[in-house]
Amino acid sequence: MKLRILTAAVLAATCAAPGLAAGVTPVGPALSFGTADAPAQFPTVAMRADGSFVVAWTTGTAVMAQRYAAGGTPQGAAIAIYTAPSPNVVWDQPKLTMNAAGDFALAWHIEDSGNAAVGQVEARVYGADGTPLGAAFRFDDDAHPAVHFGFETSEALALDAADHVLGAWTAAVPGKTGLLNADRVALGLYVRRFTAAGAALDGAAQEISNGGKLLTELDSVSAAVADDGHYLVSWSAGGEECTLVPPGAVGCLIDLQPSVVHFRQLDSSGKPKGAVATVLSSLQPGQGLGQQKPLSAMNGSGTFALMWLALTPVAPKIIHSQEYSAAGVVKGGGAVDFPRTQCCSGFGPVVAIDPAGDYVVAYEDQLRLYAPDSSGRMQAVGPAFNSPTSVTGLAMGSGNQFVLVGSTSAGYGQIYSFSK
Question: Where are the domains of the chain?
Fold first, then answer.
């Protein structure tokens, strides 16, 4: 199984665009992480309100992390989170989450390089000083083993103020398959909470994604938590949609669906607060090629931003972003668009939100800032601007700052300040 490395050749193929937008300024020198012998791949980042942050990445056989103070000074040496025994590999980007105290947790998907069907998701929690708060633990289980789809994200986690971890992952629904493609399993999104030491909370894993519908495509999972402990989980789902008749039956009614972005809020115990919701978009179900690669970000008050990639016959790639209140109500008059009408396949969109509700989005090497105006409507802050690398991770703190990370032949990061 091959891991993808973002090389200089790939970066050279990305779209040309203007430099920094007015009011966006680099803070300090660029960050570098990883080594020549074990270059950083798929880096991601989480930032505390005070501007301190953690970067995590994989080398293909290990998961690593580095703590930084506000301003970008490394804090201690890089932390070896996990090393895969041969022939296993660490597949795709590690997942990283941080709470307001600066404690952080990581999750990673392990696969046997000789058998892609063999794999599991593990996680570990660390204090703000980099001290482990427990051993690594598995958060999927034998009854609902995690399923992975190439470079699509099929697991996520969020860390609350008590250092409890919510794990979310895609798994096959036992005993169900796609009816048009019997070799394709029907999928559900499962969640379960754990202590920092890996003890399961609140009973068995629960399926939250579809309420009686089975889907053969379910990926791009992300999760976040607010200061009051409630969670947000988002994902993309489509393919063969089977409505069980009756619930629990083997047979189902077939409805072929394009991928659509969904989200659901959970209370502090991990139980659903309401029904599954879908984003509002200019691309309606049944038109175009669907909504793909969603990612969500939530600030402490529970305000959250969702972004996703829409593929249409007219414009190959349009990034939609939308902000919601803590109650899940659309803010700012609806979705705003970040058009990308040519080139660029790439890692997928990324998004981060700050305590004020400002958010930054990135796709490939291009970024754009959004902020609410006096009426609460989201507006772009200046034109789109460029990073020197394809962006694979974003995070925001207080004080109009954000940090981005990516990789070429080495891990790259940069802190920026912005005015609005």
Answer: 84-278
